[in-house]
Amino acid sequence: MLIGQFLSNADFSIQKADSIQQALEKLQDMLCKELVVLNGDEYIGFVNESILLDADNDAGPISSIKINTAPIQLRFNQHPYDALVMTTVYNSSLVPILDQDNKYIGVSTQLDILKAISLIQSQNESGAIIVLSIGLHDFSLSQIAHLVESDNCRILNCATKINLESDSIEVTLKVDKSNINALLNSFLRHNYIIMETHNTVAAFDDTADRYQQLMNYINI
Prior knowledge:
By secondary structure, this protein is of the alpha+beta class.
């Protein structure tokens, strides 16, 4: 999965020869925080509302003000995780995407990146989420996978977080099975601490039930 597959349909760019007033109007029209500055199809940098409002002359070109030239860009064939890191490190709402010739082809917004990560992590698949804790030196992903498969489950996604204070590792699993009682018992027998469990199907079903109850009440 490549970040180039998750480009926004909206145009968040402005040419450096365009006026500052044009940029301010575009920010307002698009309800966005920042715009990508281009010279033709060459990526230059970013401008935001604060930079634009500080300009002495609204009629002047974008090139007359200080453009943020932080290295906030990715190649189309990089991974969506790279885009997630980029938005976090630079606190940016969009990431410009360049082609193999370093030409600008569009942006991935935070929402586009979130959609990509959701697909990678199988968040749209029904099942259950299990959060485990185990000693750092006892961690074995192969053992966890074996226990899951022994219960006729598949791991859809796995994430780990090291806790140095307790010398333990937190493992978050997404499995493709909703009834996980037997699996939880298996983890307990193997000395895993079960920190959290979430049944995604049950959560959706509960919401649907409450919605239907509300509709029934309204129709009385």
